[in-house]
Specification:
The protein is 23% helix and 26% strand. It is of the alpha+beta class. The chain has a domain at 74-201: Cyclophilin-like (Cyclophilin), CATH 2.40.100.10. It has an 8-stranded antiparallel barrel.
């Protein structure tokens, strides 16, 4: 081995890790989201809408926000779920089929397609059957993955599950406070009886917020 060859050998060893670093794929960017503030009479709740992973459902919610269709509506329901960590359950709010506010139903985006799940702070569309969701939504206190799509179910509702389209990023204390408010045992119909808040919480203003990265 010549002197020149001996000098090149260690340089080649030093260069190899550098080359490997240069060839490493770039880190993936997080999915795009849009922040929305729900200013309520009980405090503010900020949600990050999954505009990339649940584009149809997030766009529908943003339309209600941009057209002021949520302003003056209420959180009217507090449902308890006997699943997992306690207290668990959801609060529900929105247009309540007000003809001056409600928009047509939207195509269903199941969790098996979006990759999202009903975990703590999830915001999910209320619906009667897949494709009927419009202007009512729920926010979950804790994990409630039983609301996710279950392809093995024979029931079309549970086979498709409910459509998660975002998560609370600030204001979970407000969500918990609303859920803890008294319900009226005489209010509500059918299996929702007793789940209606005695004094609904007003959504004073729903608006887009600046993303921290902007």
């Amino acid at each position: 081995m010549t002197t020149f060859t001996r000098l090149l050998a260690p340089l080649a060893l030093l260069a190899s890790p550098l080359a490997a670093q240069e060839e490493a794929p770039p880190a993936e960017s997080p999915p795009q989201t849009e922040l929305v503030v729900l200013e309520t009479s009980a405090g503010d709740i900020t949600v990050a809408l999954e505009t990339e992973r649940a584009p149809i459902t997030a766009a529908n919610f943003l339309r209600y926000v941009d057209e002021d269709r949520f302003d003056g509506t209420v959180f009217y329901r507090a449902m308890t779920l006997d699943w997992g960590e306690q207290p668990n359950g959801l609060i529900q709010g929105g247009t309540q089929w007000d003809p001056d506010r409600v928009l047509p139903g939207i195509p269903h985006e199941p969790t098996t397609v979006t990759g999202l799940s009903h975990t703590r702070g999830a915001i999910s569309m209320a619906m009667g059957e897949p494709g009927s969701a419009n202007g009512d939504f729920s926010i979950f206190l804790q994990d409630a993955t039983g609301m996710d799509a279950d392809p093995s179910s024979e029931d079309p509702v549970w086979r498709n599950g409910y459509a998660v389209f975002g998560y609370v990023v600030d204001g979970m204390d407000v969500v918990q406070a609303i859920h803890a408010m008294p319900t009226d045992p005489g209010k509500g119909e059918g299996w929702m009886k007793g789940q209606m808040l005695a004094e609904p919480v007003v959504i004073v203003d729903a608006r887009r917020a600046e993303n921290p990265a902007d």
